[in-house]
Predict the 3D structure of the following.
Amino acid sequence: MHFEFHVLAKHYPVLLKGLVVTIEYTLICLVTSLCFGTFIAILRTFRIRLLDFLLIAYINIGREVPLLVQLYFIFFGLPALGISLSTPVAAVLAITLNEGAFIAEIVRGGIQSISRGQWEAARSVSMNRVQAVRHIILPQALNKVIPSLVGHTSYILKDTAILTVIAVDEITSAAGYINDMTLSSLTAFGSAAAMYVALFWVLQHVGSRVERAFRYGEVLKWT
Amino acid sequence: MADVIISVDQLVKRFGALTVLDRVSFELHRQEVVVICGPSGSGKSTFIRCLNGLEASDAGTIRFNGTVVTRKNFHEIRKHIGMVFQAFNLFPHLTVLENATISPIKILNRPKDEVIREVTALFEMVGLSDKIHFRPYQLSGGQQQRVAIVRALALKPDLLLFDEPTSALDPEMIKGVLDVMRDLAKNGMTMIVVTHEMGFAKEVADRIAFFNKGNFVEIKEPRGFFENPENEETRRFLGQILHP
Amino acid sequence: MDLTWHWNILRILFLKGFIPTVKLVPIAMFLALLVGVVGGSLRVLRIPVLNHLLGIYAYVMRGVPTILLMFICYFVLPTGRNPMNAAILALVLSNGAYMMEIVRGGLEAIDRGQHDAAKAVAMNFWQSIRYIILPQAVLLVLPALVGQLVLLIKVTALASVIGYVELTKMALNLNGSTMSPLPIFFYSGCFYFVVCHSLKWVADRCERITKERIMGKAPIHGLA
């Protein structure tokens, strides 16, 4: 088996369309997961026992059940309950719930690592809990966990590949299509792999820029 | 005159462009205790680390018991030289007793019961017999360093090297360790000690050496060293270190 | 939908789904561990060309989605289009890279002073590895390795896309024939959850125990 450039030349539009779709899903899921995960982490700071129990259950289930199973559950299961979802919505929902659990844990770790003194200081300038979280705790927590979060973006990118099973036309589906049409497996899947590595490389670079901005921006923003 | 146990001839060691040991020559006799002092970065730690091969020299010869020390026979030589480190470097996954017995039993292949008996006696000598089944993290710094000394003694070495053994200890623990070292010297152990503990040096050393910028500047018996330092550098150093 | 139906579903999922999943795990884990230990040790030695190649291997495995890797192992690599072989290969390649970095991290985390002390008590290279370095490295990375085991179990679900019949594939099949996705996928999720959660608990305990044992490694107490 060898790499057949003429096949690539003929079918690259499919791959490019897949690339666009992958990027779209990655970016959207990135935003939704970060927001949702942070939201869950914030909810946990309220320490309402029943809520906490449910949240911990969600976080554990979200992290310990494979994304594929969660995706199938949402994609096949929710319609059975009468909730009909379009494919993109189901896809984004599944990834958001899955990655959201991981991000909630990461952010929670950041929040926990903020010393008690910060809470007390916020209290002493008469902030209530919500204000304390919003102005004092959360900014510092997010700052601390930026490296972990940046690292997580690559997982979200890889998650979009799983969407191929529900017929989302991202890179892996495109490669599958080319493979079916031409039987040129190395060309099809090799190109796909190369695209993912390239995207990963881009994410790494953007990520380290973001990290750097936060590291030095911290001094400027919060003093 | 007692015979020479270790001799160093024109030893050179470079780290990149920096010459850390600049043609150092030195001789140590059996049962002699030499204290080496000097400013940080002078190369004194590098010097004694060369003696047991933890650092490889770039030029010059080291002779131990008459044999030239080369890259090939280093770990053979180390069976006769013990070393105590500033950071103790105890093995955290082993008990105190195992720290000292692992080498005699597994490396020197001496019979297990004999080794355990001897090592237990050594621990008693340093006052740690109730701690031998503890793990290093459960001991204080001074206790850990005493374990390190026993670990070095367990090999029955001909020579003991000490690399700033008390520099990482809280003040109240230093005496305990120095007492052990003093006893060792009194019982005839051959020792090279890199340290800033001048009181110890004055009392225990046969010779004190001032090491600076890659070589020995002055080596003398304690009285002459403290009262009549020949060298300007030595005098300046003594001035700094004896008047904190 | 009565209790017998649910019981049957559970039984089928367990026997025809969970068991095949479990079958994949020991082989893949063992081989991945092998890759990890050998690769990690080699990387620590910093052999010029080899280190770079292993670095590229690690980078690519971090970038390529596992599902794509499954397809590659099935279609491109010489696994004879055997779903089980392809799945195991994909798992070994991807997890092996992570294991390699974990082992490398563990070995490099061992304080330099430990190497010095091992030499000072007359150990040669292999003796110091065997008695001093390796035991500490293993204790250090054990929690991370168990974490990788959890990841491995989750990732076996992807073997379903190349036709290996494990838990997820079985669930898909059952869903196809009974059209009751909710209980079926819920039960599958439960299987994964129970296994992964128990392992995580084990990993946490391991971590706590080893922290107690290795606490104070290469201590430099007394420096204010």
